[in-house]
Amino acid sequence: MLKQQDKLIHKVAIAVDAIIIAISFVSAFAIRDGFDFRYLNEMPPFAEYLPAMLLVIPLWVILLMLFGVYGSMREKGLVRLSWSIFEASLLAILVFTATAFLLKFNLLSQTFVVIFFGLAVSLLTMEKWLVLKVLRSIRRRGLNYRAVLIVGSGSRARDFVKSIESHPDWGFKILGFIDEEEMLGRLVGSARVIGTFDDMARILDENVVDEVFFVMPRNWLDRLEKSVKVCEKVGVKATICIDFFDTAIAKPVIKELDGWPLLTFDATPNDFFFLALKRSLDLIGSALGLLFLSPLFLLIGLIIKITAPGPVFFRQIRCGVNGRTFPILKFRTMVVDAEKKLEELQKQNELEGPVFKIRNDPRITAIGRLLRKTSLDELPQLFNVLMGDMSLVGPRPPIPSEVERYERWQRRRLSMRPGITCIHEVVARNNKDFNVWMKMDLEYIDNWCFALDLRILARTVLAVVRGTGC
Question: pTM of this prediction?
Fold first, then answer.
């Protein structure tokens, strides 16, 4: 009955959101035209707008679904829910705009798209806020609750109970605890230990239980399989608290491989949709960049050939994801035998750590100095981005000899695809502390989001225009 109720609520929520998107679509036209209905007869019939609306509604709803907007609202806060709505809506409007352009929906102006997006996001957020408020009010009155049984009564279980009891709006009602026989009858928070593992089947048969939370010590894991099967048999949801391992950064992710359930601890961003969006930006950005900048490539190549005898491009082996090596491509900014002269200059290194950099490096050519100042020497790396070895934004790819001298904590910067530009290139380019660079790269990995890449790209363009490098 409860599952049927959830499915019905889920369908109603989708229908309401579809109506809101449709209302936003129609309203955007009215607002765009300043509510001036005098020229209504001159406007195309609504049938001409219908294909666009029929495209955007299911697209938007599917993305809201994929971003978890329609999951259980018990543990979700308004900020988290609003952000999910914004992310899904932003992707929806981008895909819709691109598709509308390809299908030549000429009736949709930029003004309409902006108004439509703003209206839809605002109305969807207001609707969810209202639903959350109503549900929380109902649950605080002891209604619409889920009866839960908790396996374990140790310190972790007690902390878990405190979280539940401090959030009455979640709507969880603790029936009792399952623990060792000597703990029977003992009060833990607001409930008692009502049975042992052997009593679980009887307790589930005799009581209304919607969910069983397993918050138990590691040495009880051998009992877990039998207990989960008891829940499975009677159709009660079993949820396992998996904080058995004290990982500071890596986040647990449930995966499946050919039917094998896997628990993965991932220390890198794992948001599939936004990683796919990042890769899409890389492909589109690098392809368009190579296309539109090809005259500049030819000009720079010609100047290098005339002023600095030798090859136009400089190839060097760099380390990519998890230490994979690849040949990076740059415009040559140094004399041909620059690598041989490096040892002579090592004592003048101005940076700490394994990287090498000096002001007024004598190996840099005249045109090379200009290219480095404007970061135009990095442009050929658009080929590396297109090939998938690099991204537009990410930690800069080191050379293997640098990686050999890394401390263990510094190697984690290799866990993400390297980039043409990175956070310390636009924030702390003149900071000579190698450890500061490393920490900023790790902060980028730990806090990565698609919006952060866009901000770094914007600041990179600004730095290049100003001639301060990237």
Answer: 0.66
